[in-house]
Structure formats: C-alpha cells, structure tokens
From TrEMBL:
The lineage of its organism: Bacteria, Pseudomonadati, Pseudomonadota, Alphaproteobacteria, Acetobacterales. This is CinA C-terminal domain-containing protein. It comes from the Bacteria. Coiled coil: none annotated. InterPro entries: CinA-like_C, CinA_C. Residues 24-175 form the CinA C-terminal domain.
C-alpha cells in the first residue's frame, strides 16, 4: 500500500481556507464590538466571504446577508449597477464594485458595512489590461459615508485566487472597523 500524502496544491488551498476562516472570525468579533452588521456583494468569490462569515455560530447577529452577482445581468438587477458603468468599465473595475457595494447597502437596510468583490479568477478570461488574478474590492460604510476601493493581483490556481480574494475582502472589512469613524 502506497503512503498517501496530500498534494501540495490541496495543502495550499487548505491553508488558505483556514486563514480565511480565521480572518472571518476576527471580523465577526470586530462587528460585534461595533454593534455592526455587514452585507456582501460577490462575483468571482461566489459567496466565499458570506460563507466564511456564516461558518461561525452566532454570526447571524453580525451578518445581514450575501448576494452573489456573477453575471452582469445580476449585477444590474439585484444591485442596480448601471449599464453605462458595465459598458464603459467592465465588470472588473473600481466603478463597478463601488456600485455593487452601494447597491448592497441599499437592499440590506440593517447593514452598516458592505463589501463588494469582482475579479478574474481564471484560468481564462484575462487580458493584458485585466490579467487573471486581478480583483477589485470596495468596503462601504453607511455610517461614515466612506467607501474604500483597492485592487490586487493574486497568483495561483482558480481556487487559490478566490480564497486569497475572500481573505483580502475580510481584511478590508476589519480595517474599516478598526479605522476611526
């Protein structure tokens, strides 16, 4: 019988998944301390952020919900992302994730924060201007009116890119909660 070793790829994904869950737990603690709730608007992460947040018992007190808007049609219909923004900038852009974040706050009246994510997880779909691994993020705070945007380019497999993006989104939420209002 052969000695069965986990593949390095699965090990990397397991490590990334565990790190994402640790960050989600930290975010929930910060949300609880601030008596705040969050809503997610996700594209390339396909609900990973909402899943990580709701992994923990009691998370319903801090998590308003999650919207997976993978297609442009869903971004328009659920989040109110204007056709003009999608046509001019594309789904993976700062204006789109800003509109996604604002749209999420408009449908989740109890949420103080929203986090929006759109990117290219690969393995195809990238270009010179928008490579595989490019992800845009926005965290919007209803209380302060501040919306913070960032873009990152991650490397790895499709799943590794998605896990890194989800963890980064959670880190941005934590930073928003740690910043003075």
């Amino acid at each position: 019988m052969r000695d069965m070793q986990p593949s390095p790829l699965l090990s990397d994904e397991a490590t990334l998944h565990a790190a994402m869950l640790r960050e989600a737990e930290r975010v929930l603690g910060l949300l609880q301390a601030a008596s705040a709730r969050v809503v997610t608007a996700e594209s390339c992460t396909g609900g990973l952020v909402a899943s990580a947040l709701t992994h923990f018992p009691g998370s319903s007190d801090m998590t308003e919900g999650g919207l997976v808007t993978y297609s442009n049609t869903m971004k328009k219909n659920l989040l109110g992302v204007p056709n003009e923004i999608l046509a001019q900038h594309g789904a993976v852009s700062e204006p789109t994730v800003l509109a996604m974040a604002r749209g999420a706050l408009s449908v989740a009246s109890l949420a103080r924060l929203s986090v929006a994510i759109s990117g290219i997880a690969g393995p195809g779909g990238g270009s010179a201007a928008k490579p595989v691994g490019l992800v845009w993020f926005v965290v919007a705070d209803r209380l302060s009116g501040v919306a913070r945007a960032e873009k990152q380019v991650f490397s790895g497999t499709r799943e590794q890119i998605r896990l890194q993006a989800a963890q980064h989104a959670l880190t941005m939420v934590a930073a928003s909660l740690s910043a003075p209002v």
